[in-house]
Automatic annotation (TrEMBL):
<dbReference type="GO" id="GO:0005524">
    <property type="term" value="F:ATP binding"/>
</dbReference>
<comment type="function">
    <text>Reversibly transfers an adenylyl group from ATP to 4'-phosphopantetheine, yielding dephospho-CoA (dPCoA) and pyrophosphate.</text>
</comment>
<feature type="binding site">
    <location>
        <position position="88"/>
    </location>
    <ligand>
        <name>substrate</name>
    </ligand>
</feature>
<keyword id="KW-0067">ATP-binding</keyword>
<dbReference type="InterPro" id="IPR014729">
    <property type="entry name" value="Rossmann-like_a/b/a_fold"/>
</dbReference>
<comment type="similarity">
    <text>Belongs to the bacterial CoaD family.</text>
</comment>
<feature type="domain" description="Cytidyltransferase-like">
    <location>
        <begin position="6"/>
        <end position="134"/>
    </location>
</feature>
<feature type="binding site">
    <location>
        <begin position="89"/>
        <end position="91"/>
    </location>
    <ligand>
        <name>ATP</name>
    </ligand>
</feature>
<keyword id="KW-0547">Nucleotide-binding</keyword>
<feature type="binding site">
    <location>
        <position position="10"/>
    </location>
    <ligand>
        <name>substrate</name>
    </ligand>
</feature>
<dbReference type="GO" id="GO:0004595">
    <property type="term" value="F:pantetheine-phosphate adenylyltransferase activity"/>
</dbReference>
<feature type="binding site">
    <location>
        <position position="74"/>
    </location>
    <ligand>
        <name>substrate</name>
    </ligand>
</feature>
<feature type="binding site">
    <location>
        <position position="42"/>
    </location>
    <ligand>
        <name>substrate</name>
    </ligand>
</feature>
<keyword id="KW-0548">Nucleotidyltransferase</keyword>
<dbReference type="GO" id="GO:0015937">
    <property type="term" value="P:coenzyme A biosynthetic process"/>
</dbReference>
<dbReference type="Pfam" id="PF01467">
    <property type="entry name" value="CTP_transf_like"/>
</dbReference>
<feature type="binding site">
    <location>
        <begin position="10"/>
        <end position="11"/>
    </location>
    <ligand>
        <name>ATP</name>
    </ligand>
</feature>
Length: 159
């Protein structure tokens, strides 16, 4: 039986930290869906369609990874996809408290879908999409933080 995991996020934009978690999840699960969700509390730089394209280009080397988007609750989406698990990356202890609250609610909504927390690689522990956008806005080099396709897209946005 094939095991499917959902790797959710806003991915505005995708970073090497996200890709690290996705690659590691792809080694554990038969299939991984990277699902773009719109975080209503954030004003995104990239549209959902742009984010999907940037993610597809960034993970095309992973044959068992696909990209999708949803406006539903994560657990409703995961259930629709017949997912076995949700993969969440943790950068620091500060992420854990927030993620624990979300996971507790998700478990209440759908107890049959597990949440797997993965610690981000140390080299990416400081990395967030917000930091990347801030640095890119001031024309600083982000080539070691994001794939080339994302770097080009950021330069285009901040012309």
């Amino acid at each position: 039986m094939s095991k499917l995991a959902i790797c959710p996020g806003s991915f505005d934009p995708i970073t090497y930290g996200h890709i690290d978690i996705i690659q590691r999840g792809a080694r554990i699960f038969d299939r991984v869906i990277v699902a773009v969700f719109n975080n209503q509390s954030k004003a995104p730089l990239f549209s959902v369609e742009e984010r999907i394209h940037l993610i597809q280009e960034s993970v095309k080397h992973l044959p068992n990874v696909s990209v999708d988007s949803s406006d539903h609750l994560l657990m409703d989406y995961a259930k629709e996809q017949n997912a076995d698990a949700v993969i969440r990356g943790l950068r620091a202890v500060s992420d854990f408290e927030y993620e624990m609250q979300i996971t507790s609610m998700n478990r209440k909504l759908e107890e049959n879908i597990e949440t797997l927390f993965m610690m981000t690689n140390n080299q990416y522990s400081f990395l967030s999409s917000s930091i990347v956008k801030e640095v890119a806005k001031y024309k600083a080099n982000v080539s070691d933080l994001v794939p080339e396709v994302v770097e080009k897209a950021l330069k285009e946005k901040y012309k």
